[in-house]
């Protein structure tokens, strides 16, 4: 009796070990562990009276990215509208889409939204990317931006250290400086005009 009892115990332990090694956790009607289809394959005939039957997914059309004894190949995602393909669909991975240039994915609405343009007097601090909008900031003193832009920051104003300022720098316009050569030319013209007036005055006195 003792050997028979030991054999019964060993058989029970063996059956339990086989169940623990069954990755699918499911069995055929005959007690065989259901096999799993690997990534890139889908279930054609599910496990039951017979063993699981798998078939390859069609590259660029269907995919399966997990081990499974129940899942068929799934159709690939098609990027449409404002979405463009980021990575293509393979037999084991779905396609991924991203918003086209000039748009970003709004995490709340899960829709592509147009990137915000920084207005005049504002510069780009963080550019519009796949997952967030443009962040703009008003130009600080000494900087300006004279046009709307998606990517341009505020730029430093022109320095008029060695010449007089015609127009000071504002958040939307650069400083305009008077050129030294122009100043000299204007001074020479004024001197010539004064000399001409003086000469004419002398002629009038002589007459």
UniProtKB/TrEMBL annotation:
Q: Which SMART domains did the record assign? A: TNFR
Superkingdom of origin organism: Eukaryota
According to its UniProt entry, the protein's GO biological process terms are: Rho protein signal transduction
What CDD domains does the record tag this protein with?
TNFRSF16
What keywords were assigned to this record? Disulfide bond, Receptor, Signal
The TNFR-Cys repeats are found at: 21-54, 56-97, 98-136, 138-177
| Bias-annotated ranges (Acidic residues) | 177-195
Q: Which Gene Ontology cellular-component terms appear in the entry?
A: cell surface; plasma membrane
Q: Does the keyword Manganese apply?
A: no
Q: One GO MF term, please? A: death receptor activity
Which residue intervals make up region (Disordered)? Answer: 177-207
Q: Which residues pair up as cystines?
A: 34-47, 76-89, 79-97, 115-128, 118-136, 139-154
The signal peptide stretch is 1-17
List each copy of the TNFR-Cys domain by range: 21-54, 56-97, 98-136, 138-177
Q: What is this protein called?
A: Tumor necrosis factor receptor superfamily member 16
Which organism is the protein's source?
Takifugu flavidus (sansaifugu)
């Amino acid at each position: 009796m003792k050997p028979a009892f030991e054999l019964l115990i060993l058989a029970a332990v063996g059956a339990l070990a086989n169940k623990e090694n069954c990755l699918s956790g499911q069995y055929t009607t005959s007690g065989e562990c259901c096999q799993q289809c690997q990534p890139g394959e889908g279930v054609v005939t599910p496990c039951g009276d017979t063993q699981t039957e798998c078939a390859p997914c069609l590259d660029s059309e269907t995919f399966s990215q997990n081990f499974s004894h129940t899942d068929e190949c799934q159709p690939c995602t098609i990027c449409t509208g404002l979405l463009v393909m980021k990575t293509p669909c393979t037999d084991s991975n779905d396609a991924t889409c991203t918003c086209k240039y000039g748009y970003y994915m709004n995490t709340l609405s899960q829709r592509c939204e147009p990137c915000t343009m920084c207005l005049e007097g504002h510069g780009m601090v963080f550019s519009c990317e796949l997952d967030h909008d443009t962040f703009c900031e008003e130009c600080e003193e000494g900087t300006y931006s004279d046009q709307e832009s998606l990517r341009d920051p505020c730029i430093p104003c022109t320095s008029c250290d060695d010449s007089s300022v015609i127009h000071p720098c504002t958040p939307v316009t650069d400083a305009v400086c008077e050129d030294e050569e122009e100043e000299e030319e204007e001074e020479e013209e004024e001197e010539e005009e004064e000399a001409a007036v003086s000469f004419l005055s002398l002629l009038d006195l002589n007459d």
